[in-house]
């Protein structure tokens, strides 16, 4: 049975090429998804840091700096 499949693959390489291109598309989409998630998480952390920094009174910030 396996020799039949190998002989078919030698005669017609299109299924192998289709599978390779599908693997490439899946890999590129996963890389793009991870990049988008990384950017979203870093933007959320940046916005959170801005929100926390904006609500801190200046006097308590100066006192905390002296203690540190």
Separate helix tally? 3
- What is the helical fraction, as a range of percent? over 70%
Q: Indicate the mean pLDDT.
A: 78
The overall strand count is: 0
Beta fraction: under 5%
Unreliable spans are none
Oligomer: single chain
Give an overview of the whole structure.
Keywords: Membrane, Transmembrane, Transmembrane helix. The chain crosses the membrane at residues 20-46. Helices cover 91% and strands 0% of the residues. The longest helix has 42 residues, at 14-55. The chain is mainly alpha-helical and 68 residues long. The chain has helices at residues 2-11, 14-55, 58-67.
Overview in brief:
With 68 residues, this protein is an all-alpha fold.
How would the blueprint of this fold be written?
Elements: H1 2-11, H2 14-55, H3 58-67
Keywords: Membrane, Transmembrane, Transmembrane helix
Transmembrane segments: 20-46
């Amino acid at each position: 049975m396996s020799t039949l499949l190998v002989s078919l693959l030698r005669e017609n390489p299109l299924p192998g090429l289709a599978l390779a291109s599908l693997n490439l598309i899946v890999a590129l989409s996963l890389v793009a998804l991870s990049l988008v998630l990384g950017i979203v998480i870093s933007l959320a952390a940046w916005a959170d840091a801005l929100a926390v920094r904006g609500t801190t009174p200046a006097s308590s910030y100066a006192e905390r700096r002296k203690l540190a």
